[in-house]
Amino acid sequence: MINKISMATPLKMNFKAQTKITAPEEFLSKEEKEYFEELGSKIGTDKDIIEITISDLHDSKFNPDVKLYTAEKKYIIQKENGVSKIDTKMDIPYIKDGEVIEKNSPLKYINKIFERLTD
């Protein structure tokens, strides 16, 4: 379920950030991807970029009881106080000992990104 995000302060810009969300359907439905892509298009200008990629699950190299997904986020957003530029890639533990770690779900991860972008 998507938690709708409201923009804290409307920016006085042309809204058109190029937004691309890539994730397996098991993590993010088509509707959820469309929601975030539309939300991203309201954050910046047509020169801004937001890209979020979530991989398939894979085994941890360090603990065989943990399954991870790789999350990559890239964005360049013009803000009133300068340019926000991020390019990170990290493995996030999602299943441990057969139990899902809900707080680490891809949907919650993406939601947090957009909450920060809209503050």
The gist of it:
The protein is of the alpha+beta class. It has helices at residues 30-40, 106-117; strands at residues 18-22, 49-54, 58-59, 66-79, 82-96, 99-100.
Sequence-ordered SSE layout with sheet pairings:
Blueprint: E1 18-22, H1 30-40, E2 49-54, E3 58-59, E4 66-79, E5 82-96, E6 99-100, H2 106-117
Parallel strand pairs: 1-2
Antiparallel strand pairs: 2-4, 3-4, 4-5, 5-6
Helix pairs in contact: 1-2
Task: Label this structure with key terms.
elongated; 37% strand; 6-stranded mixed β-sheet; alpha+beta; 6 strands; 2 helices; 119 residues
Number of helices: 2
User: What fraction of residues sit in β-strands?
Assistant: 35-45%
Give me the strand/helix succession: EHEEEEEH
Number of strands: 6
Q: Give the structural class.
A: alpha+beta
Question: What do the pLDDT scores average to?
Answer: 86
Describe this protein's structure.
Strands 1, 2, 3, 4, 5 and 6 form a 6-stranded mixed sheet that branches. The relative contact order is 0.21. The longest helix has 12 residues, at 106-117. Helices cover 19% and strands 37% of the residues. By secondary structure, the protein is an alpha+beta fold. It has helices spanning 30-40, 106-117, and strands spanning 18-22, 49-54, 58-59, 66-79, 82-96, 99-100. α1 runs parallel beside α2.
